[in-house]
Amino acid sequence: MNTFFCSDYSRQAGEDIIGSATYQETYILVECPPPWISEAFNSRWVPENLQILIKEVKRNKLPIKFLLIANNLSHKVEHTTLLIYHRKEGLSNGYCKQEFQLANLEQVAAVVRKWLRGEFSNSDIETNATRDILVCTHGSHDRCCARYGNPFYFHATSIVSSLELENVRIWKSSHFGGHRFAPTAIDFPNGRYYGALDQQSFNSILTRTGDITFLKKVYRGWGILPNSIQVLERELILRHGWDWFNYKVTGGIIKQNLDKNMVLAELNVEKPDCSLYCYQAKLVKDETQTLKLRASCNATQESVFIKYDVDSFWLASHKLITCSK
């Protein structure tokens, strides 16, 4: 019997991976040595007080994603890293980071509770400017993340080392969605998602160099934007090139019809020179790219994944502004 791999199936079907980034307000990343079981926060090293907190957060429907992270030193170091990435308000280029070095995993829940109560301001915590790239290696959750995520994590750490990028950290991560795009990654602090990565594409993403059209194959979207608008942002990346990664944006849906076959979207863009552009676009359901696929290796039924195409977009307004902080 042949073993089914959902990422092979997705690639063979020619699925366009744009629009699959999770639209998330806050990520709480907890360093915890593997192995992790399928439901990661039930793993042996995760303390009960943290499990209770996560259940409370889910029960209250707070827009928070908890993930376990680890690197090659996680089982050797005498501290636990806790990272909280919270989406910036208004025009933004991603997430604000707060980082804590804790004595052990048992301290995580109390610190997160204090953060939820608003007891930490950004000025309270010394936070260095790092780029944290998460690679899903959660093979107990989906076999594709073991088959493709683990080797890619090894290559990614080697590439960062060879490029001597001291401010970039590569982390193994528990499942954050999109197994069928393995190897898949999130790039913080901007919060962009990538999939179907290889060494060459990852090198370009790290250095922001090379022919940007390769993003059509590996870019899943920007997690600060609603899913349907992510295809518009990709179109603008391809028009503006790597400069786009220095811009701040905010976006939303102006209107959509009841069956969501047509979406009118808006994306406001601030460039470093303090010019503000407002793009509007008509997005239509792309029948050729809307596919029925098994979403994961363990899925028993196929799911429909609606894809959008940029039917048209236009510059609605342009003005100089006072730069946002």
What's this, in brief?
This protein is an alpha+beta fold.
| Oligomeric description of these chains | single chain
What is the molecular shape? globular
Strand order of the largest sheet: 4-3-1-2-6-5-7-8-9
Main β-sheet, in a few words? 9 strands, mixed
- Terminus-to-terminus distance: 58 Å
Q: Helix segment count?
A: 7
Mean pLDDT, to the nearest integer, reads 89
Strand elements, count? 15
Strand content: 25-35%
Radius of gyration computed on alpha carbons: 20 Å
- How are helices and strands ordered from N to C? HEHEEEHEHEEEHHEHEEEEEE
- Helix content range of the residues, please? 10-25%
Model description:
- The strands form 3 sheets. A 9-stranded mixed β-sheet has the order 4-3-1-2-6-5-7-8-9. Strands 10-11-12-15 form a 4-stranded antiparallel β-sheet. Strands 13-14 form a two-stranded antiparallel sheet.
- Helix 4 packs across helix 5.
- Strand 1, helix 2 (48-59) and strand 2 form a beta-alpha-beta unit.
- The protein starts with 5 loop residues before the first helix and ends in a 5-residue tail after the last strand.
- It is built from 7 helices and 15 strands.
- It has helices at residues 6-13, 48-59, 108-116, 143-162, 199-207, 215-218, 230-240; strands at residues 26-31, 64-70, 80-87, 95-102, 131-136, 168-173, 185-188, 192-194, 219-222, 248-256, 262-270, 275-285, 291-293, 303-305, 308-320.
- The mean pLDDT is 89.
- It is globular.
- Helices cover 22% and strands 31% of the residues.
- By secondary structure, it is α+β, with helices and mostly antiparallel strands.
